[in-house]
Every structure is written in C-alpha cells, then in structure tokens.
Design brief:
mainly alpha; two-stranded antiparallel sheet; 9 helices; 6% strand
Amino acid sequence: MEARKNPVYLRSIAAAVKEFRAALDEFLELHVRNEGPGGWGGIARGIAPAVLPREGVEPDEIERLRAKVSRLSGLAGAAVGLTNTWVKVQGVGVVDPIAAWQTITQPKPVLEAPDVLGACDQALGRLDGLILEAEAEMPPTVGAAAMHPVVWGAAARLWRDGHFREAVAGAAESVVMMVKSRTKRFDLAATPLWQEIFSDRPPQPGKPRLRWPGDPADQDVSTMNSGLRFLAPGIQMTIRNNAAHGVGELAEQAALERLAALSLLARWVDECDLNEAT
C-alpha cells in the first residue's frame, strides 16, 4: 500500500515527529537562543550558532540529549517528504528541517530553532489531514482472525511471520483434514475427496456425501449442491495446489483473498448435512 494512503504508517510517522519535537524542546532548554530579545542579544547572528549552551550546564548532558534528538530525527525524517515541509533558505536552497536540525548548534547555522519547531508543527497538521484522507478512501477490511477457526488456526503463526504462501497451504490442508475426519474418507487424496463427497450420486456404504440442508428438490438447495460440486475441487486445484507447489512468496492481499475462499468453503462444509447409506 502506498505510504500516503496507509493510516497506520502515517500515525507512526506522526508519533515519531512528536517524539522528535519533544526531545528537541528538552535539548533547547539547555541552551539560550541567539536571536535577539530573550536570547543573547543576537551576538554575531548568522555567524555564531543559533543556540548556545546555558552557563553551568554539563557538556555530557548536552551530548546525551544531542544523541537522543539525532536518533529520533532519523525516525521522523520521512515526515518531510510525505508532507512537503521543506524550508527554503536564501543562498542555500531547500533544506530538510528535521535532518538538518543540528545546524542550529553550528557556526553559520543554516536553520534556527523556530524553523525546525515550526516545520514539525506544520508536518503534524498535514499528517493529520493525510490520515483523515487515507481513512476515508480505505476499502472495508476483512478480519483474518474472524475467519473459520480451522483456516485461521492453521494459518495464524505463519501469517504473522510473513510466510503467506505457507499459511495458505497449511490452511488448505487443515480444511481437507476437517472433511476427512467428518466423512471418514482417509483413503482419498484431496481432489478426489472433494469430488466424491459432493458427488450427485447417492451415498454408498463407506462413501457418505455432503448435502446442502433442505429439500433436494428446492431450486436453491439444488443450486448450492451443484455449485459445491464444482467449487470445492476448484478451490483445491487453484488455491491449495498453487500454494503448495508454487514458487516465490505470495503478496499479502493475494494470500488474504485465498484464505477468505478457504474460510467460506469450510463454513459451507460445516452447514452441510452428512448423508450416509442406510
């Protein structure tokens, strides 16, 4: 998913910007701003650093906070590109205010503290707007954990580790084992199993059938039985076989759609009656 359209990612970037700004405020408390009234009177402004250490502050404490702000600037840096909050500096050009924050402590500073703080505030406002826009455009999501327990139970651990193809293959195998246990047809491979249990032939001794509940003469019931006869083997051949024998990782969305198909099939199997020969 594109970063600008992913609200979870945008929130994580906004949180990183807030942490960076808070740490920078803490760092600035140890300094006096060289910017006129309230600072050092603007001594050699533009030549001397934009902030100067307060008298009596331990250098080790300043360095500790400098390292903290630098680390957090790395986490927050993506916000500038996402929100276009660059700072235009005369004679220099366009500057990334988060990446270049340390220039406020250096001679001939490119930026001053208000430039960095203001850019953070602006970025946070634009991120809020992007989050609202992304949430409005997001399609309804499918809850993987709400799928049939046989499907998600087999897929969950592999899914959380990013092994999407293996998760689909494992879920498909579990659905087959569920059906074998219910029908006691351990003598069949997966595809023939589906063909047998949904066959339109009457059940025989040792060969039960799964049937959609209701009057077999009812059109809706008949349609479901006919559909399952083709759907179940088709899912086996197109989803399970491809997941088990395919090469390369499945994309998360593609894997999720396959799990959804397996989950639907498993729920329909649960709803079917088991017809055995008398």
